Amino acid sequence: MTAPKKLFIKTYGCQMNVYDSERMAEALGGQGYTEAKSADEADMILLNTCHIREKAAEKVYSELGRFKKLKAQKPDLKIGVAGCVAQAEGEEIMRRQPLVDLVVGPQSYHRLPEMEEKAQTGEKVLDTDFPEEDKFEQLKRRPKAKRGPAAFLTVQEGCDKFCAFCVVPYTRGAEVSRPADRILTEARDLVERGVREITLLGQNVNAYHGAGPNGDLTLAQLIWELDKVDGLERIRFTTSHPNDMMDDLIEAHGTCKKLMPYLHLPVQAGSDKILKRMNRSHTAESYLRLIERIRAARPDILISGDFIVGFPEETDEDFQATLDLVEEVKYGTAYSFKYSTRPGTPAAERPQVDPVEADDRLQRLQALLTRQQREIQDSMVGREVGVLFEKPGRLEGQMLGKSDYLHAVHVADCDRQIGDLARVRIVSSRTNSLAGELIE
Ligand code: SAH
Ligand code: SF4
Ligand code: F3S
What we know:
With 440 residues, the protein is an alpha/beta fold. It folds into 3 domains: 5-127, Methylthiotransferase, N-terminal domain (Rossmann fold), CATH 3.40.50.12160; 135-378, tm_1862 like domain (pyruvate-formate lyase- activating enzyme); 384-438, CATH 2.40.50.140. It has helices at 15-29, 54-66, 68-73, 83-96, 112-120, 135-138, 168-171, 180-192, 219-227, 247-255, 272-277, 284-297, 316-329, 355-378, and strands spanning 5-11, 33-35, 44-49, 78-82, 102-104, 125-127, 150-154, 156-157, 176-177, 197-201, 211-212, 215-216, 234-238, 262-264, 302-309, 333-338, 384-392, 399-403, 408-411, 421-429, 434-438. It has a 6-stranded parallel beta sheet with strand order 2-1-3-4-5-6, sandwiched between helices. It has a 5-stranded mixed beta barrel with strand order 17-18-19-21-20. The radius of gyration is 22 Å and the shape is globular. The mean pLDDT is 95. Residues 13-14, 16-17, 50-52, 83-84, 167-168, 171-172 line the site of FE3-S4 cluster.
């Protein structure tokens, strides 16, 4: 018998890529691949890439350059590029980096086994179609392998919003929701394999409208179906668009016990002029009122956000409006980025902001967001929270998990197992985590 081939996948970008990488590993598991611990020991290397900002895309080429030596030592090594850079720059990748054997776009992962076989014959293969068939249905599952207690589950993919700065509608295609029964089957399967928490994924997850037995389900209706799955203890979802935050979803935050008090709701900017030019179709005011309604349903909810600074034609006054909005919302966590020009998007054609000015704004925004994050984290001290343990900590006897609010929590002298959900009292707050004690 020949030794099993080894696969190394490196994942960049968003959680959807993390989920996709797992699916690709499963699909290639059917071809006899097992996981390699590093690129050095792999027979096949796959980069699952992100195209959202220029830096993310360029990383792929520098990473590929590093594989040159490896491929010279091991001529049979196959190198593939998957994900959003593959979709956006497929043929260019092959041209720029001849050591690439295989390029596969996000909607073609179910064709990967076939493509791998072709690549083994020495052929260069590229597939960046948007096929009709449901890739998730066709991706093979590894039977009942045990796994960690927190999992991602993609329920919706693609985006029809066309924000003026964003590549996602081009790299992931039009918005598509998976049928509810398939999601429920996958969720039950995950629970059987040890999963206690599922994060439902979609580029616009709250626009979910997958087919159910009596017509389409909203995201809230899907969450209520998942709520009935025995053994599933926690439900989260990401990422939401403010315009799709429906009443039933807001209400579910107040009434569904399994739905965790955390909401990632990107606003991007606080100036209505900029929001309009971003094609966001919400205003600062409508966003603030929405946050009010969500907090009325679930007062302790932790709000998370995304921001872009230095969007074309952003003035100091516009930027000040972003700071004002942040002051009003009080974010528990946030991701903030300097605007990155993406070829082919409408904003790329607009007058750009001076990069030094944009850097300065980013620093000011991040200082404010870090302060808020710190204050909210510190305010957890003394409170009782649920913690799902995910792995042992660095110290003997210590366990590490996530709170209901998604804070990292360490518990010392902890007799609980991975996958246990416990009540914990928070005793102190450190830079990036909380320390807690079990409540007996
Ligand atoms: N679907 C999600 C997020 C998509 S990308 C949503 O609608 O919010 C994640 C984040 O990357 C975005 O929220 C945005 O803040 C940031 N982003 C997207 N395009 C960008 C660009 N061209 N430059 C800088 N940041 C960008
Ligand atoms: Fe990109 Fe906007 Fe769609 Fe989010 S909603 S994925 S930012 S186009
Ligand atoms: Fe990046 Fe594609 Fe996700 S561009 S953020 S990997 S959808």
